[in-house]
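Researcher: Let's try something more involved. This one mixes different molecule types, so please make sure each is placed in the same coordinate frame as the others.
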Amino acid sequence: MLRKKKGRVEPEIPSSSLADIAFLLLVFFLVVTTIDTDTGIGLVLPPPPTEDNPPPPIRERNLLKILVNAQGMILINERPAALADVKQRVMDFVDNNDRDPNLSINPKAAIVSIKTDRQTPYEIYIDMMDEVRGAYKVLRDGVSMAQFGIPYDLYKTRLAGTGREDVVKDIYPMNVSIAEPDKGAGR
Amino acid sequence: MPNFKKKSAKTKQEIPTTAMPDIVFMLLIFFMVTTVLREVTLQVRVDLTRAVNIEKIEQKRLISYLYIGPQSLGSNTYGDTKVQIDDALIDNLTFIRRIMYDKLVEQPKLIVSLRVDRESEMGMVTDVQQELRQAGTFQINYSTRRQL
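Model: All components are placed in one shared frame. Result:
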């Protein structure tokens, strides 16, 4: 067997190092690759106001006005509030369902309006947005657990691609609006 | 039975490795395809804030980034807050309108991801948002990292 092979000259490319080369390239791409998805707080801006298209009138009680001033203080309906209270206040406001005459009529009509000053620190603004989103998350999770027995995140992933309507989102639509900045605040 | 035992003792135990390069190449091609080598060189400092209730944006190709932060002047010194889109600093904020409008025409489902430095003030962010509204890019995203 051995002798027979020796007698025949077979031209061959040595391919034993092929795996090594491939591994080297693989390691390079492994190191370089960053599989990161962007995470963040999503928001839909309103279209710019025009003369013939004024913003729709909103009843005072359906509007929760949150102002973050230049010092980073949070004012809810012109009254100071702590950042830790924002979540509960938003939940009370949205999930009022006509109980308290000063709060929203129903979750669909409820609008959280957010206003900032020019000197407001961005970090506090984001913290506040986080709290508002947290309030909606609790409310949505509650409905989702009651109706489907799963948290909203899971419900949403199961719903993806099925084309069915998001029932939970329909009950608690997140109406967060960015207030029109003051004119003449200086550019 | 003794016969069988003897036979198995003689054969060499080896894992076939002929398919290994194929497997490695498959992995290699996967990583080559997923790798994005070109990243923008940041001319502003962007130290993202953290938040808990955040969402993932899966479709990366819909995203257009907009960076807001203090201009880095080298050796840990920072200048005024500037806006950067792709690789260029924006001197006049009204340019954002045109740039973003062009991007919106190209990709109608455009999401503008604002990567804002944590020490910025809202004034600049508001100005940029006003420009984005004029451009018609209403879908925005405040890029934040997950709070640990």
